[in-house]
Automatic annotation (TrEMBL):
The lineage of its organism: Archaea, Methanobacteriati, Methanobacteriota, Thermococci, Thermococcales. NCBIfam families: S_layer_MJ (TIGR01564). InterPro entries: S_layer_C, S_layer_MJ. Residues 409-479 form the S-layer protein outer domain. This is S-layer protein outer domain-containing protein.
């Protein structure tokens, strides 16, 4: 397939022959910022004036788009994208529509060179009238800077596929948008595998490693589907793994049919993600990052850690030319021993980190959450400040639930002194630390991040004895590093912590605590929340995230 005007980096690696190949041919890995995807992205930026949850480009690039294409901001193509991806649609609906459109665009020649475009014709006209290719070529260095950093980690893809699955594709193409979040996915055409998605342009390593692992994930989906097509019979009686995650996270699993619609879909996702993480480790992605991602993904793909161990066992015991296809009966047997229908709930708790995302699922499912602000601060202006913080967080939560779920639960704001015994059993969000909020004070010793007072005042300290399997990660200079649990959390008046635990008055529900060392730290963490971990500590010069579990043996 000829690509016109595309900036391509191609790496050629020695590997085994693709299935059906009759002569020696080296698999290729190709990474590019695809001109059609970037054309769509430019139009999307214009359609929503550079401000939208799906726009990921650096701000200076967005400004370049808005300036260069200003005369075309009401072009028919812009109106078309604004209409079909209307911002009033649910996030999931827009995400799905953009994925479908991206899949079509990535496999076409540069649009102005195509015929019979149908509904895509306005995009081709926009490209011609605006001289889009001039803009694209002017930013080649931006695209090159990103793709050159990503590509070396992908050189193992053909060899890893040969080793684990017994074949490779003739070509692996990574087709990216530089500017807009297109849901990553894979399309097969002949002997070519296309990973279609988006770049994460950043000078930092963490977004790059996130991207690399995601590319491994998408390229691994097709061979995993082949693997399950041949071997699902060994696993089909393990559907209780899916039943449990549906029971624990009913909202998330009902919205995401592609991953939770059936046990074969769910197992496909578990195998694909765990293999992607394993392949990333084998390709030089740092262990700390992979562990961080694995803990994040374990919230819904909870057997990941056991599958990672399974791949190690496979490699240690592997005979010459043996693949996962041969190993499938052993893997299925082991999976049946990790958990049974009788103990799957306990297994889930032991494998699944507590996160704000899990709490948000429960809040949406129950249809109610109470935000509790403290009234204990001897400085009454502090109480009023925390009440305003609670009201601000209520508005933020309403926007969050409407964006991702189309509607919001009942969100009630109450003072700590007004909570009833029944209120304590609900899903709660506590605003303020132990000085300000009496519920936080009562829970302080049970929190994974506890507030400690000494002669120098209040500070934060990790409290691993309150939970199980505590892992802490420092985010610094765009990198993620695992840190000792006894390392010091610096004092800074801007620091606040958001942490999630099971509600001790009703363990089916959750409590989220947003509290800083000062009222300003509390407000600061509200504006920099993170539901993808068990806790986040955030200050002007410090960011830490961590994971833990809560269960009894």
């Amino acid at each position: 397939m000829k690509k016109v005007g595309a900036f391509i980096i191609t790496l050629i690696f020695l590997s085994s022959l693709p299935l059906g190949t009759t002569q020696a041919q080296e698999p290729q890995v190709v990474v590019e910022v695809n001109p059609n995807l970037e054309l769509f992205s430019v139009i999307y930026i214009l359609a929503f004036n550079g401000s939208d949850p799906f726009i990921v480009a650096p701000q200076d690039y967005i400004q370049d788009v808005l300036t260069y294409f200003a005369p075309y901001k009401e072009h028919e193509a812009v109106k078309y994208i604004r209409e079909v991806l209307d911002e009033s649609l649910q996030y999931y609906s827009r995400d799905s529509a953009m994925m479908d459109l991206g899949g079509r665009l990535a496999l076409l020649d540069y649009l102005p060179n195509e015929t019979n475009l149908g509904d895509l014709k306005p995009l081709a006209e926009f490209a011609n009238e605006s001289n889009f290719m001039k803009f694209y070529k002017a930013h080649r260095e931006d695209y090159l800077e990103y793709t050159l950093r990503v590509t070396p980690y992908l050189e193992n893809v053909p060899e890893l596929h040969r080793k684990f699955f017994g074949f490779t594709y003739q070509e692996y193409r990574v087709e990216l948008s530089y500017s807009v979040r297109i849901h990553p996915h894979t399309v097969l055409e002949g002997k070519t595998a296309y990973c279609i998605g988006y770049a994460l342009p950043s000078k930092y390593k963490e977004p790059m490693f996130q991207q690399v692992t995601t590319i491994f994930h998408e390229f691994t989906h097709p061979p995993v589907e082949d693997f399950l097509g041949e071997n699902f019979k060994f696993f089909e009686n393990k559907s209780y793994y899916l039943d449990e995650v549906r029971n624990q996270m009913p909202v998330t699993t009902s919205y995401d049919y592609d991953h939770f619609g059936s046990f074969s879909m769910y197992l496909d996702e578990i195998l694909t993600e765990s293999l992607a993480e394993y392949f990333a480790l084998k390709s030089g992605v740092p262990e700390d990052f992979v562990e961080f991602r694995s803990l994040q993904m374990s919230t819904v793909l909870y057997p990941i850690q056991d599958f990672l161990g399974e791949y190690e066992h496979f490699e240690e015991t592997r005979k010459e030319n043996e693949t996962l296809f041969d190993y499938a009966p052993i893997m299925a047997e082991h999976m049946g021993k990790w958990a049974t229908p009788e103990n799957i709930s306990e297994y889930f708790k032991m494998r699944t980190p507590i996160t704000g995302g899990w709490a948000a699922d429960r809040i949406k499912y129950m249809g109610k959450v109470i935000i509790v602000y403290g009234t204990q601060n001897p400085d009454k202006s502090g109480t009023e400040y925390d009440r305003e913080t609670a009201e601000e967080y209520k508005r933020d939560l309403e926007k969050f639930f409407i964006l991702y779920h189309g509607s919001d639960p009942e969100i009630i704001v109450k003072a700590d002194v007004n909570l009833t015994e029944n209120d304590l059993k609900e899903n709660l969000i506590l605003i303020g630390g132990p000085v300000a909020n009496k519920i936080t004070r009562e829970l302080n010793d049970k929190l994974p991040i506890t507030f400690v007072r000494d002669e120098n005042g209040w500070s934060l300290k990790r409290n691993p004895g309150a939970v199980k399997d505590f892992h802490a990660f420092l985010v610094a200079n765009g990198d993620i590093m695992k840190i000792p649990l006894d390392s010091t959390i610096p004092y800074d008046g801007s620091i606040g912590a958001l942490q999630t635990i099971r509600n001790p008055w009703n363990e089916k529900n959750f409590i989220i605590v947003l509290a800083g060392l000062t009222r300003y730290g509390t407000r600061n963490i509200l504006r920099n929340p993170g539901f993808g971990a068990g806790y986040i500590i955030f200050g002007n010069n410090y960011t830490e995230l961590g994971f833990y579990k809560q269960y009894t043996r």
